[in-house]
Amino acid sequence: MPRPGRPMLARLRVRGWLQVRTPLHVGGAERDPNGDLQVAVNGRGQPYVPGTSLAGALRAFAEGDRPPAERLDSPWGYVMPGTQKGTASRVVVQDALITNTPSLGKDGLPDDVLDPAQLETRVSVGVDRVSGTAAHGFLHGRLVVPRGAYLRLELDVESTPDDLGEDRVWLGRLLGALAEGRVRLGAAKTRGLGRVELLTEALQIHEQRFDNRAGLLAALHGDGGQAWTLTDLRPDQDQAVRQALGIEIGWRPAAPVMVRSAVDGVAVDAVPLTSATSPTQVAPVLPGSALKGRLRAQAERIERTVRALDAPTAGDEAGPAERSAAFRRQLDQLAAVRALFGAAPAPRARDTTSNPASEEDSRGVGAVAVDDCFATSSIPAEVWNAVYCVPGDDPQAAGEPQGLDPGAREELARYGLEQADHVAIDRWTGGAAEGRLYSVLEPHGLAWEPITLTVDLDRLARHRDVSADAALALLLLVLRDLKAGRVPLGYATNRGLGDITVDAVTLTFPDQRGQVELDEFLASPEADRLTGAWCAYIDGSTP
Q: Where in the numbering of this chain does the CRISPR type III-associated protein domain appear (predicted)?
């Protein structure tokens, strides 16, 4: 006997826009010479976020941000392992086209779709702790959607009168988290990518009823039904269940600070990494991956120092596979660092009967997420393009840098970008070494956004190999060193660049403590408790 279909007597319909606050990467299968990891495109070659990817991210966040007594199996669907029992999801999430503006055409579809030529390339590299050079097998590039783009959000919740009340509650909580920028999409979410924010002024929420004649006719005639606001769905502004510590670092450069772009300029050799802030503007950026890597390196230095422990090395005669394995051992060596900053999953044999759950507790994504940090002033794209143009019509002698065109140099200087020429000195002749003259486009006098970190306290508490208090103590030591000026950022930090002055480090706790300055917290009794946990971890008396 066939089973009856799932009843749908009501529907919550959400239409709106998500703005990309930090660059976004959702992977696709296309091939592009500009990066190893591609962005998903639809059949018309348009960048988009598949509904499956969007639904997965929303479900994962909703399940982690719910009270313990609330279950979301009913709206999102489930399957009982080893059985045929389960239900399909009642949440329908459409593919999200990526656009330059939050506008719809006459056909109701987004009409300013992002051109694939606007995608940017981000290059990531792992740095060997012993040699200080790129680790073997840990260099890759990925294409990203630039900051400031928009995603069209179209979501339906198929419901019944019995489920409608609960559906309003969890949907309101999810939309509230999107409006607060607490939901991330795509890859590298803890390394600066994927933060989006729901535009509440363009949000439309309608409730349609299909259990009466009037409701059915209204839906057939295109009537949206009863309109709701986000405040209607969240009357009490309930507190987030997911426990997260927010950290904001207000800082200013004491020397030029930049991350070098993987693409050299034509008129100047080394140029700062920039990212689009609008279709016609770019701004220098310190990517979250670089900031997180620098903080991780300092955390490793602290723990290795107190343990008198050297980083593993493969030796001078080791082959590529041995060097790659040695770098993985460097990343895996320190449990507190793994808990904070993550560790790659261990290779597994093709054994589907084994249960890796115990190992997964101590591996995978870390608890610390670091956002991209942008300069507060933007540069017109046509001005920035001068660094990639050949200056003048008469090329200079082969091997000699041509430098910026005087007009372009003056224009870039208005935005704080100055060309600096560097040369290596031949130890025998005392003159310039052959082929060792190069130029750097250095940013001077730029103001920057605060560096923003988010610590997932729930994930930190689940780590098997170290207590949350010990790991948090290590992070506070890193922040203390950063505030003291011991942690330079970016490119050429051993050649005069990267020094910063930290004005304030503000901790925002999810409980009644609220916002606390770092110095105030370090002088509190709670800091003494964390110190005890750190000492016990180092001594080996507790994890």
A: 18-197, 282-498
d(CA 448, CA 252): 7
Which residue reads 């560097």 in tokens? Answer: 422
Buried/exposed code over 131-159 (b: 16+ C-beta within 10 A; e: otherwise): eeeebbebeebbbbbbbbbbbbbbbbbbb
pLDDT at 399: 44
For residue 476, how many other CB atoms are within 10 A of its CB?
Answer: 20
Determine if residue 214 is left, alpha or beta; phi over 0 gives left, psi from -120 to 50 gives alpha, anything else beta: alpha
Q: Is residue 487 classed as helix, strand or coil in its secondary structure?
A: coil
**CA–CA separation, 93 and 62 (whole Å):** 14
Beta bridge partners of 337: none
Interatomic CA distance for residues 500 and 495, integer angstroms: 14
Burial degree of 246 (CB within 10 A; 0-12, 13-18, 19+):
middle
> 77, 90 in Cβ contact below 8 A?
yes
Question: What is the DSSP secondary-structure string of 125-193?
Answer: EEEPTTT-SEEEEEEEEEEEBPTT-EEEEEEEEEE-TTTHHHHHHHHHHHHHHHHTT--B-SS-GGGT-
Q: Is the pTM of this model over 0.85?
A: yes
Terminal CA-CA length for the chain: 57
Distance CA 503, CA 250 (A): 5
pLDDT of amino acid 209:
87
Q: What is the DSSP string of 497-511?
A: ---EEEEEEEEE-SS
The pLDDT, as a whole number, for residue 358 is: 43
Contact 212, 418 (CB under 8 A): no
Sign of the torsion formed by the C-alpha atoms of 324, 329, 27 and 17: negative
Percent of the chain past pLDDT 90, that is, above it, reads 49
Which pLDDT score is estimated for 284?
Answer: 96
Q: Which amino acid is at 257?
A: V
Give the CA angle between residues 175, 371, 64 to the nearest 5°.
40
What's the CATH class of domain 10-233?
A: alpha beta
Specify the 3-state DSSP secondary structure of 120.
strand
CATH 3.30.70 domain span(s) along the chain:
10-233
DSSP state of 279: T
Count Cα neighbours of 482 within 13 Å in the Cβ-side half-sphere.
29
Query: 3-state DSSP helix/strand/coil percent for the chain, to nearest 5?
Result: 30, 30, 45
Which has the closest alpha carbon to 543: 456, 479, 469?
A: 469
3-state secondary structure at position 18? strand
The Cα–Cα gap between 243 and 66 comes to: 11
Contact (CB, 8 A) for 486 and 500: no
What letter does residue 354 receive in the DSSP assignment? S
Give the residue ranges of the chain where pLDDT is below 50.
1, 349-360, 393-401
What does the alpha-carbon distance between residue 143 and residue 145 come to, in Å, rounded to a whole number?
Answer: 7
Nearest to 159 by CA among 148, 151, 167: 167
Task: Identify the sign of the CA torsion 403, 404, 406, 409.
Answer: negative
- Pairwise CA distance, residues 272 & 324, whole Å: 29
Decide: helix, strand or coil at residue 207.
Answer: strand
Q: What pLDDT, on the 0 to 100 scale, is given for residue 348?
A: 56
